[in-house]
Amino acid sequence: MTKSKHSLRANTIPAITTVGPITLWLLFLVAIPLVYVLVMSFCSIDEFYNVSYHFTLDNYKRLFDTNYLQIYAQSLFIAFFTTVICILLGYPFAYFIARAVSKRKAILYMLVIVPFWTNSLIRIYGWRSFLGTNGWLNTILMKLNLINTPVEFLYNRGTILLGMVYCLFPFMVIPLYTAIEKLDQNLIEASNDLGARGIYTFSHVILPLTISGVFAGSIMVFIPCLGFFFVSDILGGGNSDVIGNLIERQFQSGNNWPLGAALSIILILMTLLLVRIYQKLGGDMESLGV
Question: What GO terms describe the biological role, i.e. biological process, of this protein (predicted)?
C-alpha cells in the first residue's frame, strides 16, 4: 500500500510539473478572457459610454439589425470566394511542392513560410502602395501607354479578395501539402496501369485521399477571413466590411464594448460550429494545429 502511494506520487508530480504551467497559461490567457467577454456581452452602457454590469439581452437583439445582416452576408461572401480561390491556386501549388525532389521541396516550402516572417499589416500596406493611383502598377501602365490616367484599383471588393487571398494563401497550402505528401504513389500508378486518365485519377483517387487537407485549409482560411478587418480598412477603404470591422468599430470609435463582445461571441460560435462540421466530416484535428 505504501509503495503504491509513493509510486502514484512519483508519477503525479512530474505530470503536474509538465502540464501545470500550460494549464495556468491557458486559464489566464484564454479561459478567463473568454469568460470576461461572455459576461460583458450581457452588459449595457450608460450615457457616458461606460460599461454597466446590468444583465440585458439587447446586445444580442441588435445583432439582427438589417445593416448588420448585410455585413454578415458580405463577410460570408468574401470568406467563401477567398477560400475557393485559395483552393484553386493552392492545390496545384501544394501538389507541385509535395512531388518535387527533396532539395527543391525544401526551397519551395520555405517560400511558403517566408511571408510569416513579416507582419501581414506591413505587407498589406505594400499592396496599397503598389495599387495606388501613384503606385508602381499605374506608373508602369502609363509608361507603357496602356492607360492615359491612373486607374483606381483600390477600395473595391475585388481588391479586398486579393488582399485576403494574399494573406491567407499559406494557410491553405500547408495542410494541403501535408495531405498530399502522405499520398501513396502506388495508388496513382495502379490507377494509371488500369487505364484511368489524369482527370479520372485525380477525381477518384487523389482528391478523395487528400480531401482532409482541403477541409483543413478551408477552415484555416474561412475563419480568419471573417476577422481580418485591417485588409478591408486598408484596401477596401471601409466599403466592404467584414464582421471583424464591426467588432473593431465597437471597441474603438463606437465605445460600445458590450455590443462588440456580443459580436465576438457570435464569431467564436461560428468558429466552433465550422470546426464541429469539419470533425463530423472526418477531419483530423491535428491538421488544424489542435
Answer: transmembrane transport
